[in-house]
Automatic annotation (TrEMBL):
<keyword id="KW-0735">Signal-anchor</keyword>
<keyword id="KW-0333">Golgi apparatus</keyword>
<keyword id="KW-0472">Membrane</keyword>
<feature type="compositionally biased region" description="Basic residues">
    <location>
        <begin position="419"/>
        <end position="432"/>
    </location>
</feature>
<comment type="similarity">
    <text>Belongs to the sulfotransferase 3 family.</text>
</comment>
<protein>
    <recommendedName>
        <fullName>Heparan sulfate 2-O-sulfotransferase pipe</fullName>
    </recommendedName>
</protein>
<keyword id="KW-0808">Transferase</keyword>
<feature type="region of interest" description="Disordered">
    <location>
        <begin position="89"/>
        <end position="108"/>
    </location>
</feature>
<keyword id="KW-1133">Transmembrane helix</keyword>
<dbReference type="InterPro" id="IPR005331">
    <property type="entry name" value="Sulfotransferase"/>
</dbReference>
<keyword id="KW-0812">Transmembrane</keyword>
<keyword id="KW-0325">Glycoprotein</keyword>
<feature type="region of interest" description="Disordered">
    <location>
        <begin position="412"/>
        <end position="432"/>
    </location>
</feature>
<dbReference type="InterPro" id="IPR007734">
    <property type="entry name" value="Heparan_SO4_2-O-STrfase"/>
</dbReference>
<dbReference type="InterPro" id="IPR027417">
    <property type="entry name" value="P-loop_NTPase"/>
</dbReference>
<dbReference type="Pfam" id="PF03567">
    <property type="entry name" value="Sulfotransfer_2"/>
</dbReference>
Amino acid sequence: MDHLFRQRRISVPKRTSELVALVAVSCTLFLFLHTRDLSTQLRRMQGKLNDDVTAFNHLTDRAATDRTEHAFASAQEYKEALEAIRRHTGAERSKPQRTLEAEPEESHQEIDQEYLDELLVPEPWELNNTARAGMELLFFNRVPKVGSQTFMELLRRLAIRNQFGFHRDAVQRVETIRLAPADQQVLVNLVAAHTPPSSFIKHVCYTNFTRFGYPSPIYVNVVRDPVERVISWYYYVRAPWYYVERKRAFPDLPLPDPAWLKKDFETCVLSGDRECRYIEGETHEGIGDHRRQTLFFCGHEPQCTPFNSVEALQRAKRVVEQQYAVVGVLEDMNSTLLALENYIPRFFSGALQLYWEGLNTFNRINRNSFKPPVSEAVKQIVRANFTREIEFYEFCKQRLHMQLRALRDPAITPPTTRTARRRRAQRIFRRP
């Protein structure tokens, strides 16, 4: 019987077998095409992600480098940057881990923005140090020649509008921005004595209030292109009205040498004058040394004083990341005021409207009509010695734009970073 069953064959019509074969081939082809499409979309998505990862390049301490522009962050660098932000806020968000591979050959198709934001951009509270302040007191330790007079006037008007105290330090004969510990204690006592909500404004380095037994205030500041800022300072201290004002305040002040007053910036740089050499590692105290923008964020420690140093750069970055609610950028007033309004609304509500309504008045504040133009060639010579000061400036811009992106407001479009624009251009030129 078994032998009979083994010998028996079931005949299948030829057309049925051909149909089965056709269905199998069709399924195989469909799966192949679908897999290829998914692979292409994944490569494009990874390319877009690698572009957006650039915004995190400056949010962690990096190894010393003389470059002002960096290559794209790797997946590991992005992961470390995001973890650093969440560590500093004392919070961890559970989110599935995704790995990013090397940059794809092409990445031209737009990816769903909501998905990218969810994947890459932190929540606003993760970048908001305002909530971590221990008292409702705004401390603007203003950097010179970054439009701080304009911001001070804006803050004075906002104090009336938003009903908070407005206080500024008195004009000093010799303004010292680095203080000894005893003088830091005096400053902390003075600032903390104001009834909240209040604001206090002073040219001074970042001061750690908790070190002296007081809660931290809400720190804000503004930065500017370091080379443009040092040129502005150079002519500011030579302006005729500058010495008229100081003579009125301090009649016994001696007048400067006329030859020094007449010396222009280009001649100073090209002749190798000591005032315009900007030597790395050099320390020069006093009212005349306003080259180091990082000094106002680094602090009062001796390690913060050498010009263009790696340690001062890294300390300044860390303080901005951990202690400052907002660090604005003079060249991008819209982004600066939007961030201030959204991250410190108690003090800056209505700041954008107030600024544009009084633009004519604000533009005339502290404007130096005696400053001549400086050639781009001379600026490039100076930039070569400002590498880490420039890196700090770029870091502050990246952080400001990341804060705006975190708001996820479709009406806010932060400027594309220079590094991202360069990378996209490289891909376009490589396109076959």
